[in-house]
Design brief:
- Two copies of one chain form a homodimer.
- Chain A is an all-alpha fold.
- Chain A has two domains: 49 residues, no CATH class; 177 residues, no CATH class.
- The radius of gyration of chain A is 20 Å and the shape is globular.
- The N terminus of chain A is likely disordered.
- At the A-B interface, helix 4, helix 5, helix 6 and helix 7 of A face helix 4, helix 5, helix 6 and helix 7 of B.
């Protein structure tokens, strides 16, 4: 099992590097190459946006302060917006552009697992927006590899951690907020398990405060990881690459929906090297 | 059942209007009010981003052309990026800002249901990014109500439609691509059902082309809806408000994961008006 994990991690790292190499022909990759070639007209500059040059300037932030901002912002822009705002609002002040031009409040729709459909928890989605916009998307070249891996690590950590881990200095709800482990990055599963264990309804102030604290917990970890990346010390922990290992995108809790009857996806024919 | 649907639709509309009204005290809402009051210093202008004024300028686009762009962009930036790029790249040319400043390529991470975890299909996520950024988030006031509802309608349509509905003029794969109905907005469920019915693997060129066509199908419907909104003729079709009706965020296919043993969430006490 441990060997499999190591193998996955190696495969994951290898595939990321291969993909990054391949994708350096994309618009952003061309920009990176072009910047070293005076006179070369960058395709990215011609068709890409003004903000499509990665990584974006980043200064290290205080995780505790960021989590406090996320907690309070949850009550204004909810989970996804709160995580994005907690990082980008500080960087608007400390750095300016491109953060000033990013429409943070437009991401309120991440609430309730996207427009209330209970899919991915907005905190995870918001963290992926932040990591992929600061560090860059994986198609932008090897320097941007960790935009993806900070985001993927968050999905893994969120699924396997008893949340919330963060308690605000001045909680809006004084009631004890219990911790539950979702085993899933989905809103419906995460909120559902917490509601079942705590007995509090979706519309209760306690459930709302729990979600505000989950957003704050995610924002805290996000900034710890971004700071490590800034220092060149970020090491991805997640080795979850289900597309490669089980032949379909997915979570880690197959049994929870499928029971013991997990369907086997059709697999691509193995290429035999001659 | 039909009555329930009507009631849900009414409740949904009512709650959206109530929420929109409530949220007009948010930053963007204050901006809307402030614009009518000379000398009033807008909170949105002070702390919000340069692009946080809604709706963004929109000119009607050709759904067929948009779908063709999405299809081809899938092979560069995958599902979520393709839907965003198909609309925003045209508006960069026809309108300019704020589309030029929006980092389209940063949204590659929506691929594979967010970093490969199989959660919400990136096409749905991309459509929600587009509708909520063009029309605005629901907290920005009543004029922005349909940012949420165009996005929510997409989740419903995606779940209940045999996809893909769109075939490109010059398909990269000549093999017939069958249509399947996911009953879910999730990547894992949507792709998994198609793989099961078609027999093609995740890594197959046919599966990739199917996903490119799904992104194109979503982009097509998105522009049809945005054009209707621009003409003042958009009418929301989705009445799915599970938080209000069943007490938890969720999809419409409870049985598929829960079987017949669907847990009852703890409900908030009903307020008795005296």
């Amino acid at each position: 099992m441990e060997e499999e994990k190591k193998l996955d991690a190696q495969m994951s790292r290898r595939s990321l590097l291969i993909n990054a190499g391949k994708c350096a022909v994309g618009a952003a990759g061309i920009a990176a190459v072009a910047s070293a070639l005076p006179g070369f007209v960058s395709k990215a500059e011609a068709v890409g946006g003004a903000t499509e040059k990665w990584p974006w300037p980043y200064v290290k932030l205080d995780p505790e302060k960021t989590a406090e901002i996320a907690y309070n912002e949850w009550y204004r822009v909810f989970c996804g917006g709160a995580v994005i705002s907690s990082v980008f609002s500080q960087l608007r002040e400390k750095v300016g552009e491109p953060y000033k031009s990013f429409p943070i409040d437009g991401f309120v729709f991440l609430e309730g697992g996207m427009a209330g459909w209970g899919t991915v928890c907005g905190s995870n989605a918001g963290a992926n927006v932040v990591s992929n916009l600061i560090i860059g998307p994986r198609i932008a070249g090897p320097d941007c590899e960790h935009g993806h891996s900070v985001g993927a690590d968050m999905m893994d950590w969120y699924s396997n951690t008893a949340l919330p881990t963060f308690a605000p200095r001045e909680p809006k709800q004084k009631t004890a907020i219990i911790q539950t482990t979702s085993n899933s990055p989905l809103c419906h599963v995460s909120v559902g398990k917490w509601m079942k264990s705590s007995g509090f309804a979706l519309a209760s102030p306690e459930r709302k405060d729990r979600c505000a604290r989950v957003s704050a917990s995610v924002a805290h970890k996000l900034v710890v990881d971004l700071n490590a990346w800034k220092d060149g010390k970020f090491i991805p922990r997640s080795s979850w690459t289900p597309g490669k290992t089980v032949g379909i995108t997915g979570q880690q809790n197959c049994n929870e929906c499928h029971g013991t009857n997990i369907p086997a996806p059709p697999m691509a024919k193995t290429e035999v090297k001659k």
